[in-house]
Amino acid sequence: MITMSHYLVFSALLFCISVAGIFINRKNILLLLMSIELMLLAVNTNFIVFSHYSNDITGQVFVFFILAVAAAESAIGLAIIVSLFRIRNSLEINLINNLKG
Amino acid sequence: MIIHNITNSLINFIPEVILFTMSMVILLAGTFECLKKYVFHLTVLSVIAASLIGINYLSTDSHLLFNSSLIKNNITEFFKYICYFIFLIQIVISKEYLKQNNLISGEFYSLLIFALLGCFIIISANNLIVLFLGIELSSLSLYSLIALNRSSFLSSEAAIKYFVLSIIASAIILFGFSYLYGISGSINILDITKYANNNEISNLYLFSYVLIFIGVAFKFAVAPFHMWLPDVYEGAPLPITNFIASIPKIAFFVFAFRFLNNNPIIDDENFSKLILFLGMFSIFIGNLFALAQKKIMRMLAYSGVANAGFIFIALFSALENNFSIAAFYVTSYSITTVSAISIITFLSSKKFNLIYINDLKGLASKSGYIAILLMVTLLSTAGIPLTIGFYAKYLVLDALVDRNLILIAVIVVLMTVVGLYYYLRVIWFMFFETGFNSLINTSGKFSIIILSLIPASILLIFLFPDLVFKYIFEILT
Asked: Which of B139, B161, B200, B454 is deepest in the core (most CB within 10 A)?
């Protein structure tokens, strides 16, 4: 039997994996975008679970807003990456270190 | 009935509606060759129009708009008018700089107004969805604004750093929201507060608040989460830095206020310890790292980190739900930092971009007046008497002593003294070194008059602090 707490643990794990993905990843900026997307999906899972178990539709409405914003965010992120790639010809994170004091 | 509600809400929300429409108009005007040169005038006009029309609909009691998803009362209007004031100064000062860097375009001003609009929505949101959309509206416009200078590698780098860390912050805030929704079963912030008052604080509730305030700490750039701030300050075009340094801070202060106001969580021992730790750590890191900086924007960034720590300590010391000290601190800090960055924008709006602190040497011999303006501003950020910054820091320390936290107050004072060094170093360069770089811009009568507005008010408010503080105290209690 899958209960509410299973779902909550699942989404918390998903969130932790995506945070780890952001901080461990040292190779490619595109992977960062994927991790960010995963992070927002973990939040979505949480909202859907709470909404389902409390018989309240607002949580699911919230999910639609998060999905829409996540799409806009990836679009802008990709645009920034394209402009970075045009100047640098590389997507490695280690090379993005020109700003320092 | 529903129609009546909507029209009533729209009338109360008319300044934001005007800003939204005008940003569309400005975006469109930027595409026509004949209208292109008027985008700046249109922006100034629309912001002034929105603020003036807003005055007509001011009232002393609080309204809930759009099915209680937005709130409008004295607090929101006070902070919005401070934002209008700051925003107008920023765009008027930055015009020459933008012209020099070929950044004047319809989309620039349109996005800037969208960012302002996002901050306004954060200020007046009373609903988790609206709050989230406000945060995203302001930060999405800011990502693109930072990266707008496409030929500059530093700008793109600053944009990608801001992008990643800001989304992490939003996602952490959202994760907290999801638990908050799960516990209280509502997305209305007033209902969530009511729930917290009627029930005992559970661990999950505490956890969601911790997540939300870690996100807020990211946005405020409080110490363990401050990594993006110096890079963004250095890489972004100066007018955008000016925006990021001030208006989102005000917006996120109101965000924090809305979540803590009348909420029993403020008396929770663990939660207040977290806020205090973040504040203290941030004062340490900010002041110590600022000592080592050679670039002026990075120095201001670390001083911003230290000041964000002060804001968190002021939130911590908000005894008996009295947030007026923190509100006063946020107001004074954002006004002073806008003045400092505006002066730097003004100085680098000819052929030369001011980057190193060295570049300021001998400024007093060329234009003593501007040097004095910058000196007043920096002394106010440092918290020297005769300026508003001193009064703000004094109030925070006074609140700490009232709570019998004398050791913490002493540490904070010591760190502030350490911080004094790097402000005084800039002043030393301006007044006692010679060899002024003639490429630095010091001309422009109108800009100088606008620039003197804030330092003048900094000195005036010190003479009559009760005028402002009493007003803030009144509206927040």
From this structure: B454
